[in-house]
Amino acid sequence: MKIRGLDYHYLDEGSGESVVMLHGNPTWSFYYRSLVKGLSPKYRCLVPDHIGCGLSEKPDETQYDFRLNNRVEDLEIFLDRLKIKKNITLILHDWGGMIGMAYAVRHPERIKRLVILNTAAFFPSNKKRLPVRLQIARNLTFIAKPAILNFNLFAIAALYMASKKGLDKETKKALIAPYNSPENRLAILKFVQDIPLIPFDFSYSVVSNTEQNLFKLKDKPMLICWGMKDFVFDEDFLLQWRQRFPDAQVYEFSKAGHYILEDIPEKVLKYINQFLK
What we know:
Elements: E1 2-3, E2 6-7, E3 10-13, E4 18-22, H1 33-39, E5 44-48, H2 68-81, E6 88-94, H3 95-106, E7 111-119, H4 132-139, H5 141-150, H6 153-161, H7 169-176, H8 186-193, H9 204-212, E8 222-227, H10 235-244, E9 249-253, H11 260-263, H12 265-276
Parallel strand pairs: 4-5, 4-6, 6-7, 7-8, 8-9
Antiparallel strand pairs: 1-2, 3-5
Helix pairs in contact: 1-12, 2-3, 3-9, 4-5
């Protein structure tokens, strides 16, 4: 599919009600392979690669604005083109959570259920600070740009920090395969630089609007599966989800990290299957 004149790659497997899975940074649709395999016999699984990620086109800054609002609009265009406007289940991880929930509060009538996997749709609590790794990547361009673009350190570090089980060699290769040159890593850098923390940040208004309108989704069934060893989306973020959605089904996994679908894919699939039924 072409969006803004750029190739927008996506998986489209199975038939039935639509289950839309949104990846974060620095992953891509490959991250959802276990869920696609397990859910596609009964549901239509749609898994896009955000522009600049996975198998989607890798434009430069003159061809695409990599900020959050465009990501949400890309998702709107994608689902509208496929004429998917009702009974949508969203499965969200990392930055995919912010993108998906921004879409959801804009179109709550289209959403049937929500599955949350170590992500956020709101600002961190006042006591939270970005982990040092993210602070450096976000704020110190003279360090972050060569580290992320030239050496792929952000994606490579995630292979060792985001999974607590430990990834095998082939999985590591696959997770970073699309990011095989400095030009193909621009989206990774831009996602981190776009993290909004103060009102002057460009994407602050999108996050603020999403946070303020989460109440529109209070009546939607929600499942939360949370890796408790996440070094970014930690227990404080989970607490915020619980407070905002007290009726959500919540499962905590003490030995899983940020890449929860790499650490315990079978367990998460089991709970999602039960939830969708």
